[in-house]
């Protein structure tokens, strides 16, 4: 099949998703305003026009329509509702599979009536929808998507890379001792809703009560300098390291080097880093978002705290610090759940089944991850 993708270029989610289809022998074309080489994929630069963003959007839409008319793909898979989803909708090409990511559903449509109208139009017109949590699918349905064509497809985990393994050498190279209690927060530095400031506030409380406590922050986007200054003012600069983007090949090592993984945003879909931490058998603390508690049940597969509650986060970290058996039990349970549900190959097989159903009219939808089935099933934990 010839498949066209509208998506964010130079992004690991885009590259892993499209490369999987290319390796299955499909003729894959990526249309993007962030062009960069993707092995086995033809990349098309759709940047066009100048001036204000609406004019550039309109100029890029003309490029998208021209390219799709020339390519005549069997299917368009549009990724990210904001921007790319608009182009997919106004391109008029069908079948159109829309894949939503996170704040494109949770945040942007609620910023203005125009953005809500654009998001709803794109969601209503797509032929099928994928998202990486039951909650994000429900949010998309509230904006207009069809529940019977909404499927949970995770970005998925490479279990060969993300698995429990020794990482003491990497840990020591970062300046942490074997008997330290190392807390790892790997969320982006760009968005306030990731609540890095709350993690730092909690870390200061933990350090006063647990002398072994050490803290590692990394961010795949943004400038860590403001957070480093905040950590200094909080008095934890001497026990904290800030890294920038950790290469994906190295990220599994960083996870295994940590004693606890922390992700406490106020808004999020299913974080890939959460699934990767689970696959490494790490003890986990998450905020009580629906997309997180689909995976983490308090006291069983991790600990759950309310967003932006530094005292509760500090209490959870101290609870893990004081109880190695709790850490081990939660880590083992999280690993078993990830192995059962979160594999990259099994989730991409769901995506391929949706594509084949749309292109060939097969009745082979992956109903087990469809929203109606997810609504009727208990939590995967």
Can you offer a commentary on this structure?
With 381 residues, the chain is an alpha/beta fold. It has 2 domains: 2-156 and 343-376, Rossmann fold; 168-341, 3-Layer(aba) Sandwich (Rossmann fold), CATH 3.40.50. It contains 16 helices and 13 strands. The strands form 2 sheets. It has a 7-stranded parallel β-sheet, sandwiched between helices. It has a 6-stranded parallel β-sheet with strand order 10-9-8-11-12-13, with helices on both faces. Helix 2 (53-71) packs across helix 3 and helix 8 packs parallel to helix 9. The longest helix is centred in the first third of the chain and has 19 residues, at 53-71. The chain is globular. The two termini are 37 Å apart. The model has no long low-confidence stretch (mean pLDDT 95).
Defining traits:
single chain, 381 residues, alpha/beta, Rossmann fold, 2 domains, 7-stranded parallel β-sheet, 6-stranded parallel β-sheet, 16 helices, 46% helix, 15% strand, globular
How do the strands and helices of this protein lay out in sequence?
Elements: E1 2-6, H1 12-23, E2 27-32, E3 42-45, H2 53-71, E4 75-79, H3 81-91, E5 96-99, H4 103-106, H5 113-125, E6 128-131, H6 134-142, E7 150-152, H7 168-173, E8 181-185, H8 196-209, E9 213-218, H9 225-234, E10 240-243, H10 248-257, E11 260-263, H11 272-279, E12 284-287, H12 290-293, E13 303-305, H13 310-322, H14 324-341, H15 344-360, H16 371-376
Helix pairs in contact: 2-3, 3-5, 8-9, 8-13, 11-14
